[in-house]
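In this section we walk through a basic example: taking a raw amino acid sequence and producing a predicted 3D structure, encoded as discrete structure tokens. The instruction is simple. Fold the sequence below.
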Amino acid sequence: MIKYSGGYVYQLKEDYKIELKHPDWRKCNYCIDTKYIKLNFNILEIKEGYMWDGASCFPDFKSIMEGSLVHDSLYQLLRMEKLPQKYRLMADYELRELCKENGMAKILADLVFIAVELFAANAASPKNRKKIITV
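The resulting token sequence is shown next.
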């Protein structure tokens, strides 16, 4: 018997660490340590082996890949209820800022931000956790 989850496209091949940009992360006194994601105030660490699905509803341009990794990991913490839902806007902000830093035109990064604000609430919901399949 095996257990697995589907829906992933990419796998991180080395540890990744970033200082989150939204100023409210510094006020966030969450210290979260999961198997693949660690958040300590405004420092996010994602461990080698973490899997994510890239940018939902957008082509996986190079300029969106880093942002999609950070965004997906923060949304995973929201789905796991390790972070309150009020942090969703801050996760969306990180996506937009990383898109711009990686060369995406500001107008397109703003459209990405608007799209996740309007349509991604369900993706952050605990009801939307990946299903575990047993065969």
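Looking at the output, two observations stand out. Helices lie at 62-79, 88-101, 106-119, 121-124. The longest helix spans residues 62-79. In the next section we compare this with other chains.
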